[in-house]
Amino acid sequence: MFVDEVEVIFQAGNGGDGKASFYPGQRTGPDGGNGGDGGNLYLAVSSDLTLLNQFQGKKLRKAEDGRMGGKFRKSGKNGQDLTVYLPLGSIVTDLDTNEVFELNEISQKILICKGGFKGRGTHDLASPSNTTPLKAEPGKPGQKRRLKIVLKLIADYGLIGLPNAGKSSLLNELTKANVKVADYPFTTLEPNLGAMGKKILADIPGLIEGASQGRGLGIKFLKHVEKVTMLLHCISAESDYLEEDYRTVRKEIMQFNPELTKKPEIILLTKSDMMSDKDLEKKQKILKKHGRVYLVSILDDRFHPSKLPVFKSDFNPVWMK
């Protein structure tokens, strides 16, 4: 199961308590050592998009506590830092302060929770006015945060469209992805990514009317097209309702986030091998008023997607500039 949104608690380690003790025998004075500092908790970034699965059934991540101080002025060991890896494209929101962290670079590493300070032992607490303190300081608690983590895929191109519009087949053809395909709606139950050269394509589960209000599977995944550079709108050439199909998807995108409609878009008329040239010409004419329309078929070399400008090896056709 693909997890793309979780609420978790992150906590740094608590500081270790100071030690309350005195030299034995003829030696006098306090000898209690300081505790150790609590471990910090860091967030780091990975290309593994399944990393939010680690929080299923385990909503708390905590760094190690500092150890208590010892006799003879021995300091306690510092708690070990903890680094939690999150997928590239994660947006982390502190539920109490509304502070937001965006993880958009593989090299990023963020201190999210500061470890608690050590408590002082009786040796360090001794002073001219109090030469024999009887109590040591307790360690300070580590920082604790309630966080919401939402993954928004970072892809160059987002394949959108109604269920069974051929998006997954296209992704498999263009990349090394091995996405399940079948001739029924909702074959794709989670977003899929594929790499073509240095560009990333994302296949988003099919949208249906009402997706932006929670119908079907689309609402859960619409957020994954918010960061793509271009929308590739797949419409099946077998459909008798091309304009309705197009408008349904555009309406749901508009209702979810109007900014998405401002992204560059091309229309891919998929399954073109199933139609005659005369029918294809009519269908292209219907859709051309909405933007550039390209014929696509993974079975017919005439319409092979690798011949389209957007899929050329340099990924920089003139019309995309």
What is the topology?
Layout: E1 5-11, E2 41-46, E3 60-62, E4 82-87, E5 90-94, E6 100-103, E7 109-113, H1 122-125, E8 144-151, E9 157-161, H2 167-174, E10 192-196, E11 199-203, H3 218-221, E12 230-236, H4 242-256, E13 265-270, H5 277-287, E14 293-295
Keywords:
disordered C terminus; 6-stranded mixed sheet; Spo0b-associated Gtp-binding Protein, Chain: A; 321 residues; 5-stranded mixed sheet; alpha/beta; 2 domains; Rossmann fold; 14 strands
Overview of the molecule:
There is one protein chain. The radius of gyration is 29 Å and the shape is rod-shaped. With 321 residues, it is α/β, with parallel strands linked by helices. Helix 4 links the parallel strand 12 and strand 13. It has a six-stranded mixed sheet with strand order 10-11-9-12-13-14, sandwiched between helices. Strands 3-1-8-5-6 form a five-stranded mixed sheet, with no helix packed on it. The protein contains five helices and 14 strands. It starts with a strand and ends in a 26-residue tail after the last strand.
